[in-house]
Write a structure and sequence with these properties.
This protein is an alpha/beta fold and 397 residues long. It has 20 helices and 14 strands. It has an eight-stranded mixed β-sheet with strand order 3-4-2-1-5-6-7-8, sandwiched between helices. The chain has a six-stranded parallel β-sheet with strand order 11-10-9-12-13-14, sandwiched between helices. Helix 9 links the parallel strand 7 and strand 8. The N and C termini lie close together (11 Å).
């Protein structure tokens, strides 16, 4: 069975798509990835058994296509045309679209070619649009039509033959939108243990992060990530633990605002902005930490997704302090791998951090429980089986 995956990011890297494609190849399927993104690598090459076809669009063109996707169907037309053209050469048996805004083009092509369409929701896209900086500021806020996106979401998730989501709470949401439960497969953003085991720790980096109390966050910087709460918690943390440090690994459009907030609160010297880092370096950042943070604000978006970083933190044995978004609260509650607090409450975040700082034994036990939960349950080879079964069923049909 030959599967065409379509995404609008450079490939590689895209952790979720890489994991899915490689696992399907290992299970005996043929996989081609169409990556629509700026890229200077060869237009066609094979990467670890996956054929990669790159439509090397400039970033501005790709972003405009994505931004207009819910208003003018330019992206849907483009994707449908490219799929049909590629199908004439490579002959696919199924289409797999990554993220809601690509579903329209996949459905157009799939219905014309008679191919089953699998939609893969990496996040609650419509709710994310209510929080992303680019979609809530001019000119994005003029172009993005949320009511139309709500209609398209309901239409498209009901129309795809199978729907893949990242967490049980997202499955519940899509059932409420009218998707039959039997058409939904949950494939969480867990980690491939062998990949992370190969990453070499960097002793100098780890040593540079050490402090009386090092708190670390890895990921994007946007409003719904709740990073302002983490910075606002630092005065209280520093009062109890002088010399404590907050390490923010990542970047985003609100970085300047966060840096200004740290200066305004007088904690700039205690907050390190590290920028984006290669995936292998995240291991050292986590190992150099005492507590890892997921301060996401609670929204319909964060209540229906689960970040990779949770399982990174747990695997490397670090206790987690997280906002009480439904999936985070459920998993941390089930595993005992950390503490949750009312999302957005900086004082409560500081109290949770200080609870763990005051009890190293409790913190170490939470870290141990988190690692054990990943080894037993929350690792890719265990959680990908639903995706393999999905395609096995499509192949039989």
């Amino acid at each position: 069975m030959h599967i065409l995956m379509v995404l609008d990011h450079p490939f590689p890297p895209d952790v979720r798509v890489e994991n899915e494609a490689r696992s399907l190849v290992e299970a005996g399927f043929a996989v081609t990835v169409l990556a629509i993104a700026p890229d200077d690598r060869p237009p066609v090459e094979t990467v670890e058994g996956v054929r990669v076809i790159r439509d090397r669009l400039p970033k501005t063109v790709r972003n405009k296509l994505r931004g207009l996707a819910g208003t003018l169907p330019l992206l849907s037309w483009y994707v449908a045309r490219r799929i049909r053209k590629l199908h004439a050469t490579y002959r696919f048996d199924a289409l797999h679209l990554h993220d809601l805004y690509l579903f329209g083009g996949g459905l157009r092509a799939g219905r014309r070619l008679g191919l089953p369409v699998v939609g893969d929701l990496h996040e609650n896209w419509v709710e994310a649009l209510r929080h992303y900086a680019w979609s809530t500021r001019f000119p994005g806020n003029v172009v993005v039509n949320l009511r139309r996106w709500e209609r398209l979401e309901k239409e498209w998730v009901q129309a795809v033959d199978r729907l893949v989501v990242v967490v049980e709470e997202a499955a519940e949401r899509n059932v409420a939108l009218g998707v039959p439960p039997e058409r939904i497969t949950v494939v969480p953003n867990t980690i491939k243990l062998d990949v992370f085991d190969r990453y070499e720790p960097e002793p100098d980096l780890i040593a540079s992060l050490r402090s009386p109390l090092t708190l670390t966050y890895t990921g994007g910087f946007d409003v719904h990530r709740g990073l302002a709460s983490a910075i606002e918690a630092m005065p209280a943390v520093l009062e109890q633990v002088p010399g404590a440090r907050l390490v923010l690994v990542g970047d985003g459009r609100i970085r300047a605002e966060l840096e200004a907030l740290a200066r305004r609160l007088g904690v700039a010297s205690a907050v390190r902005f590290e920028g984006w880092q290669p995936q292998p370096r995240l291991k050292s950042y986590i190992l150099g930490s005492d507590i890892c943070l997921i301060p996401h604000l609670r929204t319909p978006h964060t209540d229906a997704t689960i970040p990779h970083k949770l399982f990174h933190y747990m695997y490397f044995g670090r206790p987690v302090v997280a906002g009480d978004c439904r999936p985070l609260a459920r998993i941390l509650g089930e595993t005992g791998a950390g503490l949750v607090y009312p999302a957005g409450d900086a004082a409560a975040l500081a109290r949770a951090v200080m609870t763990l700082a005051a009890s190293p034994v409790q913190a170490a036990e939470m870290g141990r429980r988190g690692r054990e939960a990943v080894l037993q349950t929350y690792h890719w080879d265990a959680t990908v089986q639903g995706l393999v079964d999905l395609y096995a069923a499509l192949a039989r049909n």
